[in-house]
């Protein structure tokens, strides 16, 4: 006889207990948990930022901030070309969590610190904040970087700088779409590339016609298009267009001086692989108003300082993605067990994690050394030369290595890493963006060749820096000697440019690590990146390397 519903046993909704799953990496200090970063900031001249960076690192690792990062990614920007009455508005709507992240960064001054606090070590101090922030969600980093990097270009025209700098440097983030005169703070974007040219900006076809006087600070009308306009809700944009005197740089505001909307129309938002919380767009310029920065025909020299500063941030941003990926992998493997013991204690996994940690530390020491080069370049030609050569080296190599790190860290999670909730797919999608932004790998290599060709003394400053490690290890000495021999042969130099820049990066990373990193980290780098028989995949560190010590040092919770 069947039991009646009233007498039946309740269905067992829980068939198992949930265990052997990693705890989420949250409510930790992103700055203090990164020993390599803490040490590099102290060493490279930014020790005065430590207390602020410590407090900020706790905010970046807080559960609420991590939740904002998740929501900003899940609810991507939406283009609104018209309002409900049919009027053109060209606005992009962001989730409130995106604005919360922007406010977090502005509150700490990441968009402006070297200009608001022009003291020794300011770029290094900013890096101490920028790297932890980029481990939340790197979408807001795009407008932050362009706002920060716009100042050198604006200062080419003092009248424009005086009018705009106070709001660019203000720390009260204001997302409202209204004339800049009514805002507490302004953000700056960039629109250089066009369909037919890409990185070859001299092929631009957009035209700029003077509205009266010609010269720095004068008004022009710009007609044309931009294939990539980064962060289209910024308050103004640095734009390249062909003026009567040649390719020129302009500051194009969203609102004209009379308070009306500028003729800046967003055609669509890019459907991107990653960096989804940030809006990238295609725009048409239907007679948009802009002020000339610098002289007509000098557009590239005017904007190049902005480009150099954004390339610094590309290296710092990729360093952040690399560090975040490694931190997530170590956190997972510390908590997860298989075959009777924790993953982190299994020799082969320890090897993989240590190899990833070495890559992260190498990126950190190099990117912070670049930041110091920016701090020291003013008034010292040799140090300015070093900054010129080390920026494309770091931008090329750190950004190139980041996707490989993100993938390997994802694999450390097994199937869990392939699931969106793990954060790893986002890091993997985001990992290539800095390599293609502000000049892809080939552009960096060719820029380096041009810098050395124009001023051969530039290369001497590089070898002087690497020479500080001479005699520390015979493998490094031999590697540097072979590199010098390669550079002495100029045949097919352009074809070999990637190989040369890669080796320039490796030699400098090795030189920094043997001077400043723990012996285990330096030995692992030399054995796996400098030695001739080094492995090709992560997890191929040779016997004798203290992998457990390296992983322990890189553990984000071991502060």
From TrEMBL:
Coiled coil: none annotated. InterPro entries: Acyl-CoA_dehydrogenase-like, Acyl-CoA_DH_CS, Acyl-CoA_Oxase/DH_mid-dom, AcylCo_DH-like_C, AcylCo_DH/oxidase_C, AcylCoA_DH/oxidase_NM_dom_sf, AidB_N. Residues 194-213 are annotated as: Disordered. Its cofactor is FAD. The keyword Oxidoreductase applies. Residues 297-452 form the Acyl-CoA dehydrogenase/oxidase C-terminal domain. Keywords: FAD, Flavoprotein, Oxidoreductase. Residues 20-175 form the Adaptive response protein AidB N-terminal domain. Residues 189-286 form the Acyl-CoA oxidase/dehydrogenase middle domain. It comes from the Bacteria. PROSITE patterns: ACYL_COA_DH_2. GO terms for molecular function: acyl-CoA dehydrogenase activity. Belongs to the acyl-CoA dehydrogenase family. This is DNA alkylation response protein. The lineage of its organism: Bacteria, Pseudomonadati, Pseudomonadota, Alphaproteobacteria, Hyphomicrobiales.
């Amino acid at each position: 006889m069947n039991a009646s519903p009233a007498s039946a046993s309740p269905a067992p909704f829980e068939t198992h207990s949930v265990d052997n799953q990693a705890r989420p990496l949250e409510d930790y200090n992103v700055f203090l948990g990164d020993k390599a970063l803490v040490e590099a900031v102290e060493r490279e001249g930014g020790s005065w930022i430590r207390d602020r960076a410590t407090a900020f690192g706790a905010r970046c690792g807080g559960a609420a901030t991590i939740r904002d990062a998740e929501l900003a990614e899940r609810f991507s920007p939406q283009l609104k070309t018209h309002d409900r009455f049919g009027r053109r508005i060209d606005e992009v709507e962001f989730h409130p969590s995106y604005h919360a992240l922007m406010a977090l960064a502005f509150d700490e001054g990441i968009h402006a610190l070297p200009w608001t606090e022009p003291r020794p070590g300011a770029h290094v101090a900013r890096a101490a904040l920028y790297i932890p922030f980029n481990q939340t969600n790197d979408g807001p980093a795009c407008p932050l970087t362009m706002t920060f990097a716009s100042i050198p270009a604006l200062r080419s025209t003092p009248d424009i700088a005086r009018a705009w700098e106070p709001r660019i440097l203000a720390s009260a983030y204001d997302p409202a779409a209204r004339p800049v005169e009514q805002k507490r703070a302004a953000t700056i974007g960039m629109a250089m590339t066009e369909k037919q040219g890409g990185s070859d900006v001299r092929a631009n076809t957009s035209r700029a016609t003077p509205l009266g006087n010609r010269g720095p600070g004068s008004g022009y009308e710009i007609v044309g298009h931009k294939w990539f306009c980064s962060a289209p809700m910024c308050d103004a944009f640095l734009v390249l267009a062909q003026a009567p005197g040649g390719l020129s740089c302009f500051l194009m505001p969203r609102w004209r001086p009379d308070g009306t909307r500028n003729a800046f129309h967003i055609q669509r938002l890019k459907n991107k692989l990653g960096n989804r919380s940030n809006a990238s767009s295609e725009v048409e310029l239907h007679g948009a108003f802009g002020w000339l920065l610098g002289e007509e025909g000098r557009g590239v020299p005017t904007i190049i300082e902005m480009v150099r500063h954004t390339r610094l941030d590309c290296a710092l941003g990729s360093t952040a993605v690399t560090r975040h990926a490694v931190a997530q992998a170590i956190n997972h493997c510390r908590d997860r067990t298989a075959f009777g013991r924790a993953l982190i204690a299994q020799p082969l996994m320890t090897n993989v994690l240590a190899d990833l940690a070495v890559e992260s530390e190498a990126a950190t020491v190099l990117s912070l050394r670049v930041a110091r080069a920016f701090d020291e370049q003013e008034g010292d030609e040799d140090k300015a030369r070093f900054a010129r050569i080390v920026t494309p080296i770091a931008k090329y190599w750190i950004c190139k290595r980041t996707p490989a790190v993100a993938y390997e860290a994802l694999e450390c999670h097994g199937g869990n890493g392939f699931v969106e909730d793990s954060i790893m797919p986002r890091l993997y999608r985001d990992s290539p963006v800095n390599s293609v932004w502000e000049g892809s790998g080939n552009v960096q290599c060719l820029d380096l060749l041009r810098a050395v060709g124009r001023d051969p003394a530039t290369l001497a400053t590089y070898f002087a820096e690497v020479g500080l490690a001479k005699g520390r290890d015979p493998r490094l000495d031999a590697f540097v000697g072979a590199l010098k021999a390669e550079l002495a042969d100029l045949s097919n130099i352009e074809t070999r440019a990637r190989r040369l820049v890669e080796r320039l990066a490796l030699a400098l990373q090795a030189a920094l690590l043997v001077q400043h990193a723990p012996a285990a980290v330096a030995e692992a780098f030399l054995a796996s990146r400098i030695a001739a028989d080094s492995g090709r995949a992560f997890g191929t560190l040779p016997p004798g390397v203290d992998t457990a010590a390296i992983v322990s040092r890189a553990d984000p919770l071991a502060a």
